[in-house]
Here is the input.
Amino acid sequence: MTLSHFEVERFRYYILAAQRLGSRQLSEYMKTVDLTPSQSEVIQVLKQWQPISLKDLGSLLICETGSPSRLIERMFKEGLVDKVVNPSDARYVLLQLTELGLEKSQQIRYFEEKIHDDLGKLFSDEELSLVSTTLEKMLSHFPIAVTLHKRGLMKGQK
Here is the structure.
């Protein structure tokens, strides 16, 4: 079965448009709490996985490719992230949220719930599941699938 050029282009541009729309919306929300979308993802990942090494954090992020060291250094200077000595190897540090980082996590959660509510008004669970299954099929052929799997976002994961 051969897909028509029109349908492939339409699919590709719909993904791009949806990603940009979601990114703009998230950016606007995060501006109100003085964060970038990348910082908000780091905070939410740390909230779930802390304390964690920089390398392990990097393997869980979708917003950043490669090492998030510059992002973490900025967040450290802003008082959002703390570096603590790794008890199993004092040569390395682990990252965890500060009190300010934990406060920001609660603010981020509020906006995430708002986004979820907005999507819930537009789509049924069945519709969201169908789109997610379609995107998972596409993404499963690329390295980002490893990150999605680690985060428990691939089907059958939680």
In short: Strands lie at 81-85, 93-97. The radius of gyration is 18 Å. The helical segments are 5-31, 37-49, 54-60, 69-77, 99-122, 125-139, 144-150. DSSP finds seven helices and two strands in the chain.
